[in-house]
Amino acid sequence: MNMNKILFSLVLVCLGTMEASAQHVLNSELVAFTSENPAAPSANTLGFPATISTQEATTLDAPYNLESTTKAEAPRSRQRYAPRRSFSPRFAALADIGIGGAFDMNATLGAQLFRFFYLGGGLNTTYWYDGIDKEGNHTDVNLIINPRFEIPTPSIVTPYIDFKTGLAVTHSHSTYWSIGAGVQIKQFVVGLGFSVQTVRERYFHYYGEYLFGDIYDYSSNESLTLRFGMKF
Predict the structure, then answer these.
(1) CB 195 within 8 A of CB 186
(2) Which residues pair with 166 in a beta bridge?
(3) 140 CB-contact burial (10 Å; exposed 0-12 / middle 13-18 / buried 19+)
(4) Selected residue with higher pLDDT from 173 and 182
(5) Cα–Cα–Cα angle for 188, 144, 178, rounded to 5 degrees
(6) Which of 37, 117, 203, 208 is 20 to 30 A from 217 via CA?
(7) Which residues are 202's β-sheet partners?
């Protein structure tokens, strides 16, 4: 009987010890959980700080916008590299005189259609003289057109090639043409010109008192002249 009591007492002691140890373990775990600091955020792999203050966020530069930059720069680029208009007509006029195998005066009014091309129309008056046969001296007045090709240069000197052609108002069948070349220095023009006036004349051929028929004869006058003038 005493043996049973001893065993029963030992069992009670073991149970009490187990209960006390269990309560101690639970209390220690609870204290550990409540006293544990919050986990720190993991460091950024790129080295940036985990948090950004409000002041830093407000002072950040605006994001780079490729589309807005392209739209803003495109007009400036077009304006800078836009080609100049090649066709820009403006009023212009030419006047010159020629001295040499004949004496002539030319005056035309037209337009500078391109930097290299002028087109005008006007009058030519030429006095043809012959030092030997005075009867051959005469004056022709021609209605002409005047195309002129110029070579633009960065200097004040502009080489040119000049053409003139037209019909005479003093003869019913007479044509005039001229070609010249030279340079224009600012507004002043100096060059050489070669002119030709062709005339078709009608002659009546008589045999005795009877009209045998009529014939046409062509004659021409030519001259090489030194030209001076101005372009307005």
Answers:
(1) no
(2) 144, 176
(3) buried
(4) 182
(5) 65
(6) 208
(7) 216
